[in-house]
Structures are given as C-alpha cells and as structure tokens.
Write a structure and sequence with these properties.
Layout lengths: L1 H26 L14 H7 L3 H13 L2 E7 L8 H9 L1 H4 L2 E7 L2 H9 L5 E3 L2 H9 L36
Parallel strand pairs: 1-2, 1-3
C-alpha cells in the first residue's frame, strides 16, 4: 500500500509541477495573443452567474470526469517503466481520476513536444533537458527517475578487462 501511495504521490506532483510549466509557457505568448488583463477566463465567466448549488454541481461533474494525460517516454516498452505499467494494471491512475496514455519514441522529440505544450509531460534524461534548455526550450526538470543512471558497459570475461584502463586499444 505504501508503494502505491508513493507512486500516486510522485505522479500527481509531477503532473502539478508540469502543469505549472505549461502555464508559464502560455504566459510567454506574444502580446497579440494574450487575453485582456481584466477579462476572466471563459471557465470562470461561465460560473459567475450560477447559484452556489449550480456552481457546486458543475464542480462535482468536472471532478467526476477523467483527466487524460499523455506520457511520452523516450524508449521502447521496457522494465524501466514498470511503475507506470503496474499503476495502470492495478487501476491506481483510474482511482485518482487519471487516464494515462503511454507513448514511446525518442526522448528529444518528447522534450520538444512538452515544451510546445503538445504533451503534458515526458520522461527524459537530464542530458536531454540540458540540451533543450541550451536551445531556449521552456522546460523544467521536475525529478530524477533513477537513483543511479542505468547504463553499464559489459564485456565478455574472456577479454580480461577489469577496469576502464583495460579498454585502451580494444
């Protein structure tokens, strides 16, 4: 149960943090596209003339709707994404009113799509985030995915290599 709660907590924090990134990117739109400062968003205006009971009913209906989220992961289906597979299989996302669609591809593409607001968030390596930020893309690194980077160099023991220095000339 604790691992489920931790997974849900991490997922929700990620969604909330990335939602802030999307709002930040929208606020940087050209002046011609910005809403007048004194004009309330349409979703707020639509509830201003409602009675408290009607307003509460509309809020209850919105809360009951499932929020669809597209998660871009920069690889093929793989064990590294097991937390998402388990959460889907056990219904953890559905319990929280979230429907997660996992998309596979190249992480640099998903980083660009997230920066453009075309994906809610993406799983990407820190080096992709650094490259994107150096190109001026408005993305934020929210959390690390691994405790240690999951890349290893494997060499047959018959090669007699026991450390990096042993790779010289091979």
């Amino acid at each position: 149960m604790k691992s489920r709660d931790a997974l849900i907590f991490i997922f929700l924090i990620t969604v909330i943090a990335l939602a802030g990134c999307v709002v930040s990117a929208q606020n940087q739109a050209p002046a011609g596209n910005q809403r007048a400062q004194n004009q309330a968003p349409a979703e707020i205006q639509s509830t201003q003339d409602q009675t408290p009971a009607e307003n509460q009913s509309a809020q209850d209906q919105a809360a009951a709707e499932i929020q669809k989220v597209r998660l871009g992961v920069g690889f093929i289906p793989n064990v590294q994404f097991a937390p998402f597979y388990v959460a889907q299989e056990k219904g953890f996302f559905a319990d929280e009113g979230v429907e997660v669609e996992i998309e596979y591809g190249f992480e640099n593409d998903f980083v660009a799509l997230a920066a453009q607001g075309e994906r809610e968030f993406a799983i990407a390596s820190g080096d992709q985030v650094i490259l994107a930020r150096s190109q001026g893309l408005p993305i934020t690194y929210v959390m690390k995915w691994y405790q240690r980077y999951p890349v290893a160099l494997m060499i047959p023991s018959s090669q007699g290599v026991s450390d990096l220095a042993g790779l010289a000339g091979k």
